[in-house]
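Blinded run. Sample ID left blank on purpose so nobody reads anything into the name before looking at the predicted structure. Input follows.
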Amino acid sequence: MLKEGTKAPAFCLPAAEKDRVCLKDFSGRWVVLYFYPKDSTSG
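Blinded prediction complete.
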């Protein structure tokens, strides 16, 4: 598990407007990553 303030590892995700969006595509710009792992779960 990553701790707050840790740099995110390199990753790519599927995108609607192009094949993939990768974190490196935003190099040099501010990026906010938000994860909500309990979405659509009973927990």
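Unblinding after everyone has recorded impressions. The radius of gyration is 13 Å.
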